[in-house]
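Hey, can you fold this one?
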Amino acid sequence: MKLSNSAPISSDSVLARMAPEIAATFSPAQVRALQVALTPRRHPVNIRLSLPLGITRIYLVLLAGTEVRSATRRRQDAAQHPLWTPTNMLVMAGTMGLGILALLAMVQITSVDLAAVFNPKAAPAGIPFKADRSSCEESGRTWREGNCLDFGHDPTF
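Sure. Predicted structure:
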């Protein structure tokens, strides 16, 4: 736990803000337990993003690590923060939709003839040893007006 931009809170600073007669009642074991409770957890995965969204910003936090909460605490958290809310479902559907679009874009990019995209001046080359339509098309070339043409030919070859 932190207060604005200060260092993590210590049990000593918490006890110093209490009435002295109450702070004096804490045993050493209670002070140690208080310090454990005030020490922030370190998660192996800790991703925190602030994203611009039109005229506002949204934040996204993803924390992951070994589950250490008790079953009671997990039930309380699930009751306080249900997973299947309309907003959560909208975000999950949007994330899946973007993932599917990205996958489709990658598939589309890999199926495009990149030689034609990056070298549009490439001229078709006639393939003289392919004299019939079937052998020409079987080799992945184009049969046009009695000629076998290779449109992937690089003129600098």
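The longest strand covers residues 45-53. Let me know if you want another pass with a different chain boundary.
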